[in-house]
Please model this.
Amino acid sequence: MLDDIVISRAITEEYFREFLDSLESEVIIVGAGPAGLCAAYHLARSGLKVVVFERTLRPGGGVPGGGMMFNKIVVQEDSRPLLEDLGVGLKRYEANYYVASALELLGCLLVRSIKAGVRLFNCISVEDVLIYDKKVAGVVINWSAAQLAGLHVDPLTARSAFVVDATGHAAEVAEIVSRKSGGKLFTSTGKIIGEKPMWAEVGEKVLLDNTKEVYPHLYVCGMAANAVFGGPRMGPIFGGMLLSGQKVANLIINRLPKD
Ligand code: 48H
Model:
């Protein structure tokens, strides 16, 4: 016999048990694209409590779209160990170019990060930040559905030692902090410099330098890092996104006190 109410109770209780336990964490990552998921996986694997908020119903950001909806992605040699560790099959195209299934990459990122302990909440948007004593201390969240419907619904708050902006081209968290801090980002102007036109070679190269702290306790990774610090876009080559996620994880791991 199956009781409809037991099914509803199981979902509600389990969801809110996890949600309540995620209101305080060591790292909040905003955005479950390739950079955010890769960062989350490496942080959780090192034993940290990691929470990811993703606006859309489907995590993965730009991954499943591949290049122009052709669902393959390209990665370069430097990122090969990362993809192999995730279990993604790679096909050598020519020297320094590998092709992978965009959907397999997304599947591996999701499975590996959730199994490592990442708490991933889809359908939740970050709409603001907590700033205590000139340090980012968490995020302000709301149901994406409420935002999409234009409903006047007040948000809730989640606190963490560090926040990572992995929101892609729009760099939404850094943009909010820039606006609300009066332009005090760690960029040359104190504000968001803005993404530059396509140039894969340079875009991938500068991305790792741009992956860093942008305001006390707020880090940027992935496309958001090039948007904030003025790097070029690079099209559907995804090695840099994954390496950027891994780099931001290592920066935070090295900063948190060891037990
Ligand atoms: C909650 C949010 C919010 C918010 C956004 O765009 P993404 O895939 O970002 P990256 O940096 O992991 O990867 C970039 C890559 O996909 C890409 O676009 C490339 C390589 N472009 C090059 C080019 O030339 O075009 O993922 C960001 C995620 C998305 O899933 C958003 O829905 C989510 O962040 N998000 N989630 N609250 N405020 N803003």
